[in-house]
Amino acid sequence: MGAGGRMAVPPTSKKSESDSLKRVPHSKPPFTLSQIKKAIPPHCFQRSVLHSFSYVVYDLIIASLFYYAATNYFHYLPQPLTYLAWPIYGFVQGCVLTGVWVIAHECGHHAFSDYQWLDDIVGLILHSFLLVPYFSWKYSHGRHHSNTGSLERDEVFVPKKKSSIAWYSKYLNNPPGRVLTLAVTLTLGWPLYLAFNVSGRPYDRFACHYDPHGPIYSDRQRLQIYISDVGVLAVFYGLYRLAIAKGLTWVLCVYGGPLLVVNAFLVLITFLQHTHASLPHYDSSEWDWLRGALATVDRDYGILNKVFHNITDTHVAHHLFSTMPHYHAMEATKAIKPILGDYYQFDGTPFYKAMYREAKECIYVEPDEDGQSKGVFWYGNKL
């Protein structure tokens, strides 16, 4: 799904699974960020208010149509079919609202328009509607982009070294354990990360995205964290009033089900973008920004690539140029592939297969046994 005449450029070549699992180079690349940027047509960096808003309007129209159909016609279905119709609605509506989440994500990167104030207003409204503390996420996510691939400073899905994995990991290193781990991660991972910094970088004291005085934020950011909290609380209050008027079941079916899907997809998308057997992580002796930004992988979600505004299959370009609007990212990705060469990673494995494979293969990180690159860490799974 898209709007505004979006350009779609399929990958020029699909790697086999064995090729996609081949380690990417970890030495300093023979090109610079400036050289990569010169390969991209200049118009790809231009942000248009009308073009960006066309995606907001399009997504909200689609979401409204699904809402209208569900609330006006599902009660005509035979009783057994309603138990099937609501889960289908929840999944489809959740996919559309994930696209809305991605647009708010664009706002957080100042990729929506040339006006920071407009980006923040749109991002705050859209993310608050999805119970995301916009400014709180914006600042921690910005640090993720500044420190991608760093074992000490990255903000989310920071892999543990083999010596630091939990004692119970070996008991989960089996098919039932992996399914359980994935189920918990996809359903509870996002709220646990926001509330308790689960899977985030360690801080010297308790870190929470709702705490304006927590260690994640600086003094100049604290007022905006309060604003984020007010936005989330306002939506919670609206849901409370709806539950009184319509009933809790109505709210859970119309809003709760799609929200679970949104939360699951944003965790899954982030997990698969940064968790792959071919990708290195670096400690402070080896890390630099460019190699860290390249330590990510583009994925293929089929038709959902369009629904998610191609955040899934243009993530490498996004980490290199995060203020580029999503509607130019496919063209930019095609342009940078010849420059990046082996440093560009794409894995076309279906996401539902990839998430299980990565849960199996990517349990911890450690340096190679040859000891030649002690500051470069690779995923392993032998416990």
- Strand count: 5
Q: Bin the helical content.
A: 40-55%
Tell me the overall shape: globular
Beta percentage is under 5%
Strand order of the largest sheet: 1-5-4
Describe this structure in words.
The chain is mainly α and 383 residues long. The protein is built from 15 helices and five strands. It has a three-stranded antiparallel sheet with strand order 1-5-4, with no helix packed on it. A two-stranded parallel ribbon has the order 2-3. The longest helix is centred in the N-terminal third of the chain and has 30 residues. The N and C termini lie far apart (43 Å).
In short, what is this structure?
The chain has 383 residues and is mainly alpha-helical. It is built from 15 helices and 5 strands.
Task: Indicate the topology.
Elements (H helix, E strand, L loop, with lengths): L16 H4 L12 H6 L10 H25 L5 H30 L7 H14 L4 H13 L22 H4 L2 H22 L25 H25 L1 H27 L6 E2 L6 H5 L4 E2 L4 H4 L7 H6 L8 H12 L5 E2 L3 H11 L2 E3 L9 E5 L3
Give the key terms.
383 residues, mainly alpha, three-stranded antiparallel β-sheet, disordered N terminus
